[in-house]
Fold this sequence. Notes:
Layout: H1 3-15, E1 20-25, E2 28-31, H2 35-41, E3 48-53, H3 57-70, E4 75-78
Parallel strand pairs: 3-4
Antiparallel strand pairs: 1-2, 1-3
Domain HPr: 9-69
InterPro entries: HPr-like, HPr-like_sf
Organism: Paenibacillus pasadenensis
Amino acid sequence: MSNNAAIVEISQVASRFRSSIVLQAENKYIDVKSILGLFTTLVGTHSYELHVHGPDADEAKKALAEVFAKHNLNITIIGE
Length: 80
């Protein structure tokens, strides 16, 4: 799987939402709207938590869950 395609798509989808969307990978927290942050994180780690908070959090969680699943990335979405 090419992580590059996943990273670009995750960032683009996240950028459509006003909510704060943070990816936790082990002890690192990355803003998923930051492509650079994703590039350094989606390497070698196999489980992620996604923390979504804000006015459109429900829509953001649903959209991002679909993108992560499409790219076979194992994600746990943490609600408020």
